[in-house]
Every structure is written in C-alpha cells, then in structure tokens.
Design a protein that fits this description.
By secondary structure, this protein is an alpha/beta fold. The chain is built from twelve helices and eleven strands. A hairpin with a 2-residue loop joins β10 and β11. 1,4-dihydronicotinamide adenine dinucleotide binds next to β2 and α6.
C-alpha cells in the first residue's frame, strides 16, 4: 500500500532521491505510438519519472529498439517494448495510465481536422483494446484532432460498458506551455513563475488562452499585445509545422507537455493534493459536452472540473466564437464512433 511504502521509504531513506523512488507506489504507464516523433522523447521522459515503476512501449513496429535503448537508463522504471497487434493486450495489461500519441501528424497546409480520417480509426481500435485490457486506466489522448478523438474514445468506452468520464483526458498541456512561454517573453517576467489557463479545445480558434488571468499579472500589455499573444498561442502548432517543412509537427515540446500531464495524473492517483492542470474533458461548464478548462486530478482521475473564472470582453467574444467549431468537431467524433 501507499502508506506502508511511505513508511518503508521514510525509515530507510538515505537521500531524498532514494526516498522518492522507494516510497512511490507501483505504477504502470503504457505509451501507444511510442516509436513515433512524440513517442520516443516521451518514452525517455517517462523513463526519467520516478513515479513510474513499469513502462510499456507499444507501436506497430520499432518499439523493441526504443525500449532496449531507454531501458539502459539507470532509473526505476522497468521498460518493455511491444510491437504489433498481437502484443497490444500485454502492453496494456494492468496499466494505470495510458498515453496515446499514435497517428499521423500534420504537414504544411493541413488543419488538425484533416487528420481525422486516419487517426479516428487508430484511436477507435486502441480504445477498444483499452476497454478490454485495462478498463480502469486513466487515458490521456494526444492524437489529433483532440476535439474529436476524445469524443470518439468516450463513445468506444460507452459501447464497451467501461466509460468513466473521470478517466478520459484530451492533452491540451502544450497550449498552456506555449501560452506561458509567449506571455513571459512579452511581459518580460521570468517564465518559471508564469501561469496561464487555456480553455476551449485544441485546434485553431478553439484554443482560448485566458491572459486576463495570467500570473504574475502584467499592466504593460496592450489590447494589441494580448491579441497577438492569443493568435500566436492558437497558431503555435502551425508555426512548428511550417518550420519543419513537411517533416511533421511538434514532437519535443509535445513530449514535454505530455510528460507534465502524465506526471500530474500519477501524482493525483497517488493522492498528492491540489494537482490542477488544464485538460479537454467531459464537462458541464458550458453547453458543450466536452470542454477544456482547469481540472483537479486525484485518486480517481478527474476529481473536479473548475470553472472559467472571470473573462475579459475579448475572451468572452473568443468563447462565443469557438463554440460552433468545437461543437461540430465533437459531433463529428461521436458520429464516427457510432457509425463505425
Ligand atoms: P509520428 O508519425 O512521428 O508518430 C506516430 C506513431 O504512431 C508512429 O510511430 C506510428 O507507427 C504509430 N502508430 C500508427 N498507428 C498506430 C497504431 N494503430 N497503434 C500504435 N501506434 C500506431 O507522429 P507524431 O509527430 O508523434 O504525432 C502523433 C500524433 O500526435 C499526431 O496525431 C499529432 O497530430 C498529435 N499531436 C498532438 C499534439 C497535442 O497537443 N495534443 C501536439 C502535437 C502532435
């Protein structure tokens, strides 16, 4: 149990490092799409996380190599690579957290919705396996379009009778990471202390950073500055897609963001209090069935969906503008899952 593990760690700890790895409960994390552009650096970062005791790396191919490589790192997690459909069950078995970065990324000129046809099918088949092999796991969805893949996952789980809205998260952490970086640069404050909530969804104008709630507050930013920061956050993914010129989308910053969110989920499961991140979840804070906002994570996954807080007029306008697009993306996902 967590308690006895903490007692054991507390009694024998010779250094804080030893304490953290000895005291944390056993946790298995599975990464689906682990050989990809996001999957590889994310595998590295999860291997470095002392809360992980078992790391399962799954992809259609290439994972034995990735697993052999990261397994040599002298940290706690035992790493196993799994390749191909027939090994998916073993990869998922007993997982506490499943991270899904499987699927194709954008090329210049593409929207996230252009990925729908390929990624919807991938997400559907992976979620079908999750409902079979680890129905209680926390699932963190990176595969785009997140605005549709999360509703697809929910429908797959509902069909299988395993849906628990507290266990399904769309990863929007990269939007927060970008908003923090861009805000710190513009407001000329140290980035380490910056916080910016980002709400709505994860595509274009559905990404709504709430700079009016940014901390530390800045009085130096004009309306034009806020608008430019908002647009840059919304187009941050496209900035990377264009710079990579056909070689994919954000992978390294996404791996960082995915690792931050998975770490928050693990801390929540382990009973660490006051773990709050933004995520795209089943929600009733607007009329839409799914919405990204600050959420509190705990032993059951999602413990509480936090409200939007006070919005500026510019943010209120952005909120109304994003709803039709987000609604359509959610409905497209639900329809796909129901018809396929
Ligand atoms: P990638 O093409 O480099 O890697 C994707 C991996 O998924 C490949 O290794 C591929 O073999 C694997 N894969 C394909 N079908 C699979 C299946 N059925 N089961 C298991 N693995 C499968 O792509 P990258 O750059 O890693 O991006 C992955 C996804 O993440 C894309 O959909 C991309 O749009 C999305 N993304 C999401 C972000 C977010 O903020 N949520 C940010 C950046 C990318």
């Amino acid at each position: 149990s967590l308690e006895s593990a903490i007692r054991r760690g507390g009694a024998s700890a010779s250094s804080s490092r030893r304490f953290s790895s000895d005291s944390a409960p056993e946790r298995k994390v599975a990464i689906l799409g682990a050989a990809g552009g996001i999957g590889q650096p994310l595998s590295l970062l999860m291997k470095l996380n002392p809360l992980v005791s078992s790391l399962a790396l799954y992809d259609i191919a290439g994972t034995p190599g990735v697993a052999a490589d990261v397994s040599h790192i002298n940290t706690r997690a035992e790493v196993v690579g799994y390749a191909g459909d027939e090994q998916l069950g073993k990869a998922l078995d007993d997982s506490d957290v499943v991270i899904i970065p499987a699927g194709v990324p954008r090329k210049p000129g593409m929207t996230r919705d252009d990925l729908f046809n390929i990624n919807a099918g991938i997400v559907k088949s992976l979620c079908t396996a999750i409902s079979k092999y680890c129905p209680n796991a926390v699932v963190t969805m990176i595969s785009n379009p997140v605005n549709s893949t999360v509703p697809i996952a929910s429908e797959v789980f509902k069909k299988a009778g395993t849906y628990d809205e507290r266990k399904l998260f769309g990863v929007t952490t990269l939007d927060v990471v970008r908003a923090k970086t861009f805000y710190a640069g513009k407001a000329k404050v140290p980035v380490a202390g910056v916080n910016v909530p980002v709400v709505g969804g994860h595509a274009g104008i559905t990404i709504l950073p709430l700079f009016s709630q940014a901390t530390p507050a800045s009085n130096d930013l004009s309306d034009d500055d806020i608008e430019a920061l908002t647009k840059r956050t919304q187009d941050g993914g496209t900035e990377v897609v264009e710079a990579k010129a056909g070689k994919g989308s954000a992978t390294l910053s996404m791996a960082y963001a995915g690792a931050i969110f998975a770490d928050a989920c693990l801390k929540g499961l382990n009973g660490v209090p006051d773990i709050v991140e933004c995520s795209f979840v089943q929600s009733s804070i607007t009329e839409l069935p799914f919405f990204a906002s600050k959420v509190r994570l705990g032993k059951n996954g999602l413990e509480e969906v936090l409200g939007l807080g006070p919005l500026s007029d510019y943010e209120k306008e952005g909120l109304e503008k994003l709803k039709p697009e987000l609604k359509a993306s959610i409905e497209k996902g639900i329809k796909f899952a129901q018809e396929n």
